[in-house]
Specification:
It holds the Pfam family NAR2. GO terms for molecular function: nitrate transmembrane transporter activity. This is High-affinity nitrate transporter. The chain is α+β, with helices and mostly antiparallel strands and 255 residues long. It has a domain of 140 residues: Macroglobulin (MG2) domain (Immunoglobulin-like, Sandwich). Helix content is 36%, strand content 24%. A hairpin with a 5-residue loop joins strand 8 and strand 9. Helix 4 runs antiparallel to helix 5. The longest helix is centred in the last third of the chain and has 29 residues. The termini are far apart.
Length: 255
């Protein structure tokens, strides 16, 4: 301990140098998962510089910490509440309109909200526009449940369009034929902007934050055709007539 203290007296900048190196380590841990893995050799090098080649326990600690931090990143997604609503999104259905899956179309349009500071969308690289369940269609349906953790959120399960983010165009639009697999429910449209790492960076939607306005309905395909329903009604009526006829004949025979 005395030797270490004497070294610091002789070289006052030693403590500052170590502090700077620890700062480098902290900055590395704040990076993305990909950058952490790529900078593993640098972490080990800094550990050797700070503690010497004999301090293998420190190196082991850094490696374990790195792996744990990577695991945490993969377990937790971005919180929806942390995203800015910087996109303006519009959809063609009128409030309360009922559309048919596999037949009707929806035209969606999106753009950057110009009320935000210019350059806010400089990190946006890709876009996804999705069809999302309204709260009324999520009641008692855990498979449609909303979660602030976007990696667990099940609100928006149907992709309408995805592609590069176009910052030069004032308005982007796309016409989508509602898929045959879309179930009967009440919906709205939401768009997500993603950064270079594929992480959600911003959003916009056709409804208010409470998701109660400008909602529309989609009637899904049940697998039953009108002709089948008509045939089943006819056969049911015929069976009733036959049954009454049978009882009438038996009664006449008894007389």
């Amino acid at each position: 301990m005395k030797m270490s203290f004497d070294r610091r007296l002789k070289n006052p900048s030693l403590g500052t140098q170590r502090s700077d190196k620890y700062s480098k380590i902290r900055l590395i841990f704040l990076g993305s998962l990909e950058s952490k893995l790529s900078q593993l050799p640098l972490l080990l090098l800094i550990a050797f510089e700070v503690h010497g080649q004999s301090s293998m326990d420190v190196c082991g600690f850094l490696v374990v910490s790195l792996l744990l931090s990577c695991l945490v990143e993969t377990c937790y997604g971005v919180a929806f509440s942390s995203l800015q609503s910087t996109l303006v999104v519009a959809a063609s259905p009128t409030p309360g309109q009922a559309l048919k899956a596999g037949q009707d179309q929806i035209t969606v349009a999106w753009s950057f909200n110009q009320t935000h500071t210019s350059g806010t969308d400089s990190t946006y690289k890709t876009m996804k526009v999705k069809l999302c369940y309204a709260p009324i269609s999520q009641v008692d349906r855990s498979w449609r449940k909303t979660n602030d953790d976007l990696s667990k959120d099940k609100t928006c399960q149907f992709n309408i369009i995805s592609g590069p983010y176009n910052s030069t165009s004032g308005n982007n639009s796309f016409t989508w034929t509602i898929g045959k697999d879309i179930p009967t429910a009440t919906y709205f449209v939401r768009a997500y902007a993603y950064n270079a790492d594929g992480v959600e960076a911003a959003y916009g939607q056709t409804t208010n934050p409470q998701k109660t306005t400008d909602l529309f309905e989609v009637t899904g395909i049940t697998g039953r055709h009108v002709s089948i329903d008509v045939a089943s009604i006819c056969f049911s009526a015929f069976s009733i007539v036959v049954l009454f006829g049978f009882f009438y004949i038996e009664k006449r025979k008894a007389e």
